[in-house]
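HUMAN: Spend a minute on the protein record below and explain its fold to me.
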Amino acid sequence: MHLFVLMVLALGSAESTESPSPTEAGVEIKVVKYADLSKIIAQHVGKVVVVDFWSVACTPCRQKFSHLVEMHRKHASQGLIALSVSLDEDPQRKEVQEAVIAFLRRQKATFTNVLLDEPYEAWRERLDIASPPCVLVFGRNGRWRKFDAEALDGDNGEGEAKLEKLVEEWLRR
């Protein structure tokens, strides 16, 4: 299934629209196409990779984002790779990039952060998600699991606890 997801991500245009982004305190962003996103994930085969698909416009995404930052802080030394993928519309617009980087800086998201330069219909179909938040976890062995908005829903943190438990289990392998 891991290869399937990478292939799905790679179905986008191979042309990158990388944009330089402001940096501050180790927080950077890069605008990418699906092909670039696929390459970023593939670079970390053998590690546990948590990919958080989110949007500044999505309140639950913003509320749950700190969990990704916390997992990265706790588990990076054990082989966890955190990757945030902003699904905000018009990622080439300076205002959008500024809003995304401002949020990421407030969160101290010092891991890899990208803005996906694909239309809503494309990422919705390819990722098989109706809307963010959505988290994909890739294990060292290539297995993966998806936590969509429903799986992450709830104020009691149950979805986040399940995600954390899976990450910790896969890090031990």
Summary: Residues 15 and 33 are 7 Å apart (CA to CA). The chain has seven helices and six strands. The chain has one domain: 2-172.
